[in-house]
Specification:
It holds the Pfam family TPR_19. By secondary structure, the chain is mainly α. The chain is built from 25 helices and no strands. Among the domains are: 77 residues, Tetratricopeptide repeat domain (Serine Threonine Protein Phosphatase 5, Tetratricopeptide repeat, Alpha Horseshoe); 53 residues, no CATH class; 111 residues, Tetratricopeptide repeat domain (Serine Threonine Protein Phosphatase 5, Tetratricopeptide repeat), CATH 1.25.40. 77% of the residues lie in helices and 0% in strands.
Length: 430
Amino acid sequence: MKASNCIIGVMVGILIISCQKQETTITNPEDYASYLNAQNNETAKEAIKTLQFWNTKIKEDSLQITALAPAAGAYTELFQSTGEIKYLMLAEKALTKSADIATIGKSGHLLALAHNYISQHRFIEAEEVAQGAYLLKTNTKATEMVLFDVSMELGAYENAQKYLKRIANQSDYNFLIRLAKWNDYKGNLDATIRNMEKALKIAESSKKESLLVWSYTNLADYYGHAGRIGESYKNYLKALAIDPANAYAKKGIAWIVYSYENNPEEALRILDAITKHHQSPDYFLLKAEIAEFQKEDNKKKVNLQKYEQAVNDERYGVMYNSHTALLLAEEHQKFDQALDIAEEEIQNRPTPESYDLKAHILNLKGAHKEALTIAEKYILHKTFEPVANFHIAQIYKANNLLEKANPIIEELVESSYELGPVIAQEIINL
């Protein structure tokens, strides 16, 4: 090749790289700068005001149901807006008492307690409480909605479908968001997004801020799964315009910056801003993953240690079981301890994802045949989660079944954004 042609070739290469970089940069720090710097959490402030009012009316042996219920609601809002586990526990205490003493509207108190148990990943107890509300036959539709939610968490998909049919109403927001979740489970992402968009229109007409924020963030997640990253980003921003302190939306933007734009430094800056005002152990895991991507071993180690310290708080109960089991197996090679947790997860929620946890740990341990048996019996074709499919591909490869692994690996390439850069690199190396 002539020198002039070499120069032209290099310039074209640079141009292509430049264009690719522009195409994959959809965020702008100026869009969300004010939200990262926001000091006031209006939701938390209002919840605290509510608590200050009602707590003056609640005595140690109080039977004042009118005070307990709103106090529980305020505690729940504080947990959601700050991530502080103590507020979820205080909400449970108030809800348990209100459910015990309520004579009028008892089903509503039971359903609120069921929601609290779901947040704690105490799904069997949530189902028991919701079934108790169902027997009262006073709030049937709302109860069936909660029973759908619990059934999905327990992997009781036939029951979930039964409850979904009972509450079917194409003009009802609560039905549409559950229909979206059902279609997501079935792997029909187009239908998932279509139903979530219908729900959003209802939320927008209602002008209820809590519904709008929930709708924008969930739709943003679904857009991300579909590779519609620009729309995902816009919806996270819409949520923040309503609730500038919303940690979930900020974390969503951090993921776009990290996984799609390949900008780990900016992603960490966003996460650091979130953790000043919102506490949740999984932030440390994400920071550790980013550190691994950056090949910063010490930073990864520090963040994993912070995660372990955080989840040592017994108030978290089983909420982070899956994360902890993976950490024990992947980072510390404590396979038997990790398997004990995986078994507990299967007992608590026998979903394909729980079985995937066990199969993955067994494969890491070297029990490849046992992992394969579980994968083909409980996971394959029963979930469309990319992580589960990634683990199945690893299990097939470990069992020298490359003809089965290769088609899955090809599909996984399309899920690189959702899986993140670290796993995306592992897919290439499979």
